Amino acid sequence: MQKRQLGNTGPVVSAIGLGCMGMSNAYGPADRDESIATIHAAMDAEVTLLDTGDFYGQGHNELLIREAIKGRRDEVQLSVKFGGMRDRAGAFIGFDTRPAAVANFLAYSLERLGTDYVDVYRPARLDPSVPIEETVGAIAEQVEKGWVRHIGLSEVGAETLRRAHAVHPIVDLQIEYGLLSRGIEAEILPTAQELGVGITAYGVLSRGLISATPAREFPADDYRSHTPRFQGDNLAHNLGLVETLNGIAASKGVTVAQLAIAWAGRVENVVPLVGTTKRARLSEAIGALDVEFTEQELREIDAVVPVGAAAGTRYAAEQMAMLDSER
């Protein structure tokens, strides 16, 4: 397994990470046994970085991971997001990253995960009512206590990243980045590189849109059914982009998913996170680590999906409003 360090001061992790959110019903029901088998397969392949959030399935995801890594905790690095508050129906009702909330959320995560420490701990979103300096300072206290090893951030802009990094070293910024989501290239990615902050990139397959046979309809409990990129004319446009990418992938003898994962991972400080609940898809994703590009191929891809090529925002309007990275 190829390795990369998260930023200048972070842990050395596998060059690809496993995003576990989908194992807790974000995309409709997931098979529990296959989800656990997928985590086991990841560990067997030396995929060390497992990404979760304490609000994924209202704690379900952390409990699932606890079961999967039992007896093998030292083989993985756990990246945990916190702060998202949800009601019983699963609706988001806000974010809380006050110092007291940091200590509270972490205590519950450690119990659910069955571990004495989290490798990377990060607020899921910027809480507009709490200065980032206070949140990072509170996590730094947990670092001093040994319950957190490293501090990360998620979906923040360049200015917020600078402010946070001035308080305590930030090892990585988790943010959406891929062929159809290239917005970070203008300012956020260069700032991270300047500061020595890694990027853990989610959404590299644009929630399954980048696929040999992308789905066109979704059940009501699949949040893509409310995402602009999967609606009407937007979907038709985006499927056209994917069809062209499929052709490029075929000419290289790889799948379009492998093409997209490798493209995101071509950047030295980026570790792609692949969210899957199936061992076959995990194996396909790991195969992307062997894909290399010529300069001509990169120019060809860039011509097909330049910045802003995708139609529709990556989240619904109310969720986009929560993103400091989009301001």
UniProtKB/TrEMBL annotation:
It comes from the Bacteria. Residues 15-304 form the NADP-dependent oxidoreductase domain. The keyword Oxidoreductase applies. GO terms for cellular component: cytoplasm. Keywords: Oxidoreductase. InterPro entries: Aldo-Keto_reductase, NAD(P)_OxRdtase_dom_sf, NADP_OxRdtase_dom. One of its GO terms (molecular function) is oxidoreductase activity. Coiled coil: none annotated. The keyword Oxidoreductase applies. This is Aldo/keto reductase.
